[in-house]
Amino acid sequence: MLTPESSVLPERAYRAPGRVNLIGDHTDYNEGFVLPLAVDFDCVVRAQPRDDGRVVLSSLDRAGEVDVAADGSTDPATVDPAWGRYAAGVVCTLAARGREAVGIEATVTSTIPLGGGLSSSAAFEVAVGLALCDAAGFSLPTLELAQACQEAELVATGVPCGIMDQLSSLAGSRDRALLIDCRSLEIEHIPLPPRLAVLVINSGMPRQLVDSAYAERRRVCEMSAARLGLSALRDATPEQVAGEPRARHVVSENARVVAAAEALVSGDLATLGRLLTESHASLRDDFEVSTPELDVLVEKLIEAGALGARLTGAGFGGCVVGVAHRERAAAIVEAAAGHYWAETGHQPHAFVCRAVDGAGRVE
Prior knowledge:
Blueprint: H1 4-7, E1 12-23, E2 33-50, E3 54-59, E4 65-69, H2 84-96, E5 103-110, H3 120-135, H4 142-157, H5 164-171, E6 176-181, E7 187-191, E8 196-202, H6 214-227, H7 245-266, H8 269-285, H9 292-304, E9 308-312, E10 319-325, H10 329-344, E11 349-353, E12 360-362
Parallel strand pairs: 3-5
Antiparallel strand pairs: 1-2, 1-12, 2-5, 2-6, 3-4, 6-7, 8-10, 8-11, 9-10
Helix pairs in contact: 2-3, 2-4, 3-4, 3-5, 4-5, 7-8, 9-10
């Protein structure tokens, strides 16, 4: 509990944005390239230190309270409610890196659609990680904190996710996309043309990676790389994977990411849009992670005037992302969302996103 002494300490707030991936899905764990941006939806953790060695969290958005040992000794798999397993994972991975067992009392709120492919879980992990580090006077470089949060998700859920989501939340930059090399983990900040609008529509069909074929897709990619004698599909050529649809997607997607970054730099929005649409076709046909609802949303965005669109995130539900000229963006998402609702009966949620700075303490 909070003692009289600890209760007078100021409450501090820590914000971590979600992310939308413009292009480059299922490339991160293949040591390839991705092109995300941190977006103006975020998770906020408001925290005070505790002196009893416990990490206690409640949520304004979800039921239940989380109470775990601050020394990382609580097994995340045993935590109930389930959303608390992500926080318990972060406690464990930070303890393994030397964080002292300082407890916190925290409240969590989020504007990121849950299960929508905008990395609500990664933002939660990052915000909790920042709160835990600050309370203990402990700091990690951005990359190492991202890696700790990535490991926390694996510990919490068993899903072997790549590092894109956590790194995007921490390293985001206003009005810029992040070209991330997932092998070297180098980041290049790519300015977004002022006339470009990024459109996101949530399909209303939540994705659950734990219950999806995500891990199976990753295993297939690793097997393909091993068959070719490569450390990762990043190094494969189109000719080597021509007969393997899963691997073919990864190789072609890496090339599209690099080309998309070049299109942003040159302001070639038509090429950018074409690359997004080609990416969706590859994710649908070669990697087979789309759904009928996502396909309809992409179709409706393009029919409404988007320059291009694709599913974003791991697939199996969630959101699509599109690009358009800014002056037409609001009309396009409104028309596409309306037609999607009429055709599928699912209520979509449409946004025109801004690229924002990465996570940090709110002063």
